[in-house]
């Protein structure tokens, strides 16, 4: 009986034991194969990415070489002028300033109420045109010389406004009739050459000449820059047609 039980147990051990060990070994070998399989996949992905990166670098190198060759063909001055723009409001502001300078000189010497009223109205228009021109000149790539002239014009306009205000306050305190209605201030500014004395006359004369000169210089510089920009655009158009 004991021999039979031992034989049954031995047979069970021989049957079940190797099966469990085989299953464990197979599972362990399967788990060990998974990380080994990830390395070839990662290597293939890296190789694909490397090929794509090399293609992009080759295209970038070719485009940079082409741009460099195009830049070497054109002179530096031409490449710089391509980015400059001259807004129309800048030219209008320069012309406005020149006209107001002439009318200021006439009003200073002729002492006419009509000319004085015209000057005051035009000064308001000049301030608006000059403000718009400065905004566009800063926003766009306007030549530095044009911007400097605009700032000079703005300085003359501020000085003229401040001088006129101080003159009117001084004259109005001496003669209160200059404060009556609209004609009072007009008469005060019309008589600036006589009521303001030599200092007032020379101040207004200098500011009038400054506004006139800045307008004329601005028109000359603007015309030169317009011609230069037009020549560059024409040469670029010819090059584009040749290509």
What features would you highlight for this structure?
elongated; 8 helices; 243 residues; single chain; mainly alpha; disordered C terminus; 0% strand; 89% helix
Fold topology:
Layout: H1 2-73, H2 76-81, H3 88-110, H4 113-139, H5 144-174, H6 183-190, H7 192-195, H8 197-242
Helix pairs in contact: 3-4, 3-8, 4-5, 4-6, 5-8
Molecular structure report:
The chain has a domain at 87-228. The longest helix has 72 residues, at 2-73. With 243 residues, it is mostly helical. The protein is 89% helix and 0% strand. It starts with a helix and ends with a helix. Helix 4 packs antiparallel against helix 5 (144-174). It has helices spanning 2-73, 76-81, 88-110, 113-139, 144-174, 183-190, 192-195, 197-242. The model is unreliable at 19-24, 69-82 and 238-243 (pLDDT under 50). The chain is elongated and about 145 Å long. The protein has eight helices and no strands.
Oligomer: single chain
Strand pairing plus helix content: what structural class?
Answer: mainly alpha
Question: Total strand count, please?
Answer: 0
Uncertain regions spanning at least 5 consecutive residues: 19-24, 69-82, 238-243
List SSEs in N-to-C order: HHHHHHHH
Summed over residues and divided by their number, the pLDDT gives a mean of 75
Distance between the amino and carboxyl termini: 108 Å
Shape: elongated
Strand percentage: under 5%
With helices defined by DSSP (H or I, 4 residues minimum), what is the helix count?
A: 8
Main sheet summary: none
Portion of residues within helices: over 70%
Q: What Rg do the Cα atoms give? A: 44 Å
């Amino acid at each position: 009986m004991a021999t039979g039980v031992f034989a049954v147990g031995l047979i069970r051990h021989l049957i079940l034991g190797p099966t469990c060990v085989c299953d464990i070994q197979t599972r362990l070998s399967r788990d060990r194969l998974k990380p080994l399989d990830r390395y070839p996949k990662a290597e293939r992905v890296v190789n694909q990415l490397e090929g794509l990166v090399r293609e992009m670098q080759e295209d970038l190198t070719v485009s940079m070489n082409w741009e460099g060759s195009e830049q070497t063909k054109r002179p530096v001055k031409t490449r710089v002028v391509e980015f400059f723009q001259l807004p129309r409001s800048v030219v209008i502001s320069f012309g406005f300033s020149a006209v107001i300078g002439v009318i200021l000189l006439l009003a200073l010497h002729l002492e006419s109420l009509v000319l004085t009223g015209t000057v005051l109205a035009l000064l308001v228009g000049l301030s608006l045109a000059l403000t718009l021109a400065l905004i566009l000149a800063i926003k766009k790539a306007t030549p530095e010389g044009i911007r400097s002239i605009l700032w000079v014009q703005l300085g003359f306009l501020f000085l003229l406004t401040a001088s006129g205000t101080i003159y009117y306050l001084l004259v109005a305190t001496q003669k209160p009739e200059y404060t009556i209605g609209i004609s009072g201030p007009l008469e005060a500014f019309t008589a600036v050459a006589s009521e303001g004395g030599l200092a007032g006359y020379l101040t207004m004369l200098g500011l009038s000449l400054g506004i006139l000169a800045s307008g004329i210089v601005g028109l000359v510089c603007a015309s030169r820059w317009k011609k230069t920009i037009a020549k560059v655009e024409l040469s670029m158009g010819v090059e584009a047609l040749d290509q």
